[in-house]
Amino acid sequence: MAKRRKLYEGKAKVIFEGPEPGTVVQYFKDDATAFNNKKKGTITGKGVLNNRISEYLMLCLQDIGIPTHFVRRLNMREQLVREVEIIPVEVVIRNIVAGSLAKRFDMPEGTPLPRSIVEYYYKSDELDDPMISEEHITAFGWATPPELDEIMSMSLRINDYLSGLFLGIGIRLVDFKLEFGRLWDEDQMHIVLADEISPDNCRLWDVKTSEKMDKDRFRRDLGDVEEAYQEVARRLGILPESGPGDMPGPDTLQ
Question: Which residues partner with 34 through β-bridges?
Fold first, then answer.
């Protein structure tokens, strides 16, 4: 395997120099973290499943006109994506009370929200991803007001589409996190959906049982984490025929 230069390593993915100008390669790891990297572990086959799930969902969103950084899946653990300037803001869309929202307002998990709530968090592990407002985002220059309007509009469209898609396979989309980036095309700049969409950054509950089918199983030591990820892929119709499997990590040049 040809050696490639590693550009960045995060908690769940490694970013490598791409084979084509303006592209990078995302390598999906099995590493699992929670509580801003305070809890660490491994979910066997997670990288393979997240690669397939994110590919499927990104392509579905492209079909309805959502611009994304996704180009194509390369193999079991890697996908080719366009190189973008990541906006350091995590967008969280909440449909049902869960997680930090339940703790913050002392509300029981599972309480339906009167409407979807959009929250913003500053993307910084060192600061534990603090919650921020639109004023912070625009005042500190992380995004302009027009960019933020576009991000909000795209986030709500994505939520509407994914909520219906998951509901159709018996899964409730409780909440999820999105990241966006700036894609430069000569002198033109476009806001595009970046990162991934998978059980790592979505809360997914079975419609009938409210069984958790996402990384909360790891966060809360509920067990059967690998099985939950596999079940999401199975319901989406994309579980690899050979199972989640594995492949060695790529050779790299630092």
Answer: 39
